[in-house]
Structures are given as structure tokens and as C-alpha cells.
Amino acid sequence: MTYPTETLTQSDICAATTDLTTLHHKLLDLFCQLAYQEGDFVLSSGQSSSYYINGKQVTLHPQGALAIGRILLSLLLADIQAVAGLTLGADPIVTAVSVVSAYENRPIPALIIRKEAKGHGTKAYIEGPNLPEGAKVVVLEDVVTTGKSAMKAVERLREAGYTVDTVISLVDRLQGGAEFYQSVGLKFQAVFTIEDIQQRYRELKN
């Protein structure tokens, strides 16, 4: 997919110095321009949907990754020792946050959670630096529907001895994910809701 010319302006290229409020607006526009589609879709949860959000169109976009890294890093409490997520959707997100954290002089490692244990070597579920027992880790996700996907990462991290009490998503589809996390005692935060994206999408079309 080619990137629309309007998403690659000089102001976007300077995203490293853009204030977070402006960056938030730019990221929302990228989701509307690159990731959001309307039609008939079946989600990974098995649910039918009249729209689809391909988050990787933004998380793997150069300006998108930079904006995501800066925005998510700003949401992390000072005592967080790592960010983690379930492969494949979370891979570019945790990487972006970790790289940006180094530039911000607040280095935070990234962990990637496999869906199945590696079939060779250590046969591990978790890839990334080894952390101290009880280390505080935040799970990151691109799009939350039911919440069950990121919960797999939470469970693997806890089994490894880490402390996880927060999930942060780029987009909340408002289809039960937040309520699910609350029911299992997890804090949940989303950068955007589907309502934010759909409203801006309509504005950009007009």
C-alpha cells in the first residue's frame, strides 16, 4: 500500500519534537487514512463487523511508529520496568516504545510473547531481556475487541513471575474489552475509541 502524500508532510517528519497533543491528532488521522476500512469483515474473535482496523498499517508506518512510541511512553508510570505484547500485532508497538524510551533517557525493555512456545533452544514463550522477579510490566495491544488476546500475554508474563496490572491499547472497539479487563482486576486505557476514529474519518471524507 502506498502512503497518501498528505500523511508525509514536513510537520509529520518532525514528529520527534511535536507536542503530544498535536501528535495525538496526527496519529488519529493516520488511523483514519491508513488503517480504518468499512465493509463486511470477520474479526479474529469470530465476530462479524461492518468495519475493520488494520493497525499494522500505522504501527509499521515510520511516523506512526514514532508517534505511538512517544504517546504510549507518556502513559507509563515511572516504576514500569518493561512493555510487552502478544505477537504479531504488538511487536512493532513494544519496539517503538522501547526505542523512544532510550531517546528520552528512560530506557524500557520490550518483551514479545509467543502464541506457542518456541520449538527449539530454550522453548520459551517470552522473547526479550530477562527481568528481575516481580518486575512491573505493562501489556500493549493495537486493537482491543473482547480483550482475550492481550490477556494471553498477561497470563504468560505472570507465569514467568512478572507483575502485570495494566493493559494499554491503541484502539478500543468498545465491544466488551474494557469491561472484561475490569472483571479480572486489570486497569485498561486506550489512546482512541472506535468512536474517535469514525468521527474523524467522516470529517476527513467531507
TrEMBL record:
Pathway: Pyrimidine metabolism; UMP biosynthesis via de novo pathway; UMP from orotate: step 1/2. Keywords: Glycosyltransferase, Magnesium, Pyrimidine biosynthesis, Transferase. Its cofactor is Mg(2+). Homodimer. Gene3D superfamilies: 3.40.50.2020. The lineage of its organism: Bacteria, Bacillati, Cyanobacteriota, Cyanophyceae, Nostocales. It comes from the Bacteria. It catalyses: orotidine 5'-phosphate + diphosphate = orotate + 5-phospho-alpha-D-ribose 1-diphosphate. SUPFAM superfamilies: PRTase-like (SSF53271). Orotate binds at residues 145, 173. This is Orotate phosphoribosyltransferase. GO terms for molecular function: magnesium ion binding; orotate phosphoribosyltransferase activity. Its EC number is 2.4.2.10.
